[in-house]
């Protein structure tokens, strides 16, 4: 299952550091991997990953790829972390607030 997360229009981007701190504040252990073709945030022992679009360490959109092999709680914590940063979510049903 995928959930797209993004900042509302006209909002300044978040730094990757801010995203990592927000994820840690939700008792997650994120691992950031910078690749030449994009950035990934993974979680040890979990299959859920975040593909985050960043430019010079700043991000304004990402895709949370939730694995059904992981408990639903990790997805809820990830979305809550992005919500804490003021990001919005969107899926096949439309846009929604992340609380």
Contiguous low-pLDDT stretches (5 residues minimum) are none
- The number of helical elements comes to 2
Largest sheet: 8 strands, antiparallel
Strand content: 35-45%
Number of strands: 8
Helix content: 10-25%
Backbone CA Rg: 12 Å
Quote the average pLDDT: 93
> What is the overall shape?
globular
End-to-end distance, in Å? 19 Å
Helix-strand sequence: EEHEEEEHEE
Structural class by sheet pairing and helices: alpha+beta
Features:
single chain; 99 residues; alpha+beta; eight-stranded antiparallel beta sheet; 8 strands; globular
Secondary structure elements and their pairing?
Layout: E1 2-6, E2 14-15, H1 16-25, E3 31-35, E4 38-42, E5 49-55, E6 58-65, H2 72-84, E7 88-91, E8 94-97
Antiparallel strand pairs: 1-6, 1-7, 2-6, 3-4, 4-5, 5-6, 7-8
Explain how this protein is built.
It is built from 2 helices and 8 strands. Helix 1 (16-25) packs across helix 2 (72-84). With 99 residues, it is an alpha+beta fold. It has helices at residues 16-25, 72-84; strands at 2-6, 14-15, 31-35, 38-42, 49-55, 58-65, 88-91, 94-97. The protein is globular, with a radius of gyration of 12 Å. Strands 1, 2, 3, 4, 5, 6, 7 and 8 form an 8-stranded antiparallel sheet that branches. The protein starts with a strand and ends with a strand.
